[in-house]
Structure to design on (55 residues):
């Protein structure tokens, strides 16, 4: 699968960097809104960020 269509399940900083460098973005589950904002900063504005936040 091409990197432009791949998402990485990522929570930690190293996995987010991997998602930024080698994939189209990241998937995260059970994270806080603050963590989501930090992940967006790490990934950059053009990456896909899929987030599951329980309400």
């Amino acid at each position: 699968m091409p990197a432009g269509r791949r998402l990485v399940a990522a929570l930690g900083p190293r996995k987010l960097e991997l998602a930024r460098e080698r994939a189209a973005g990241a998937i995260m589950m059970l994270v806080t809104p603050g963590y989501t904002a930090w992940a967006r900063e790490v990934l950059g504005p053009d990456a896909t960020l899929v987030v599951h936040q329980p309400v």
In short: DSSP finds two helices and three strands in the chain. Residues 3-52 form one domain. The first strand starts at residue 7 and ends at 9.
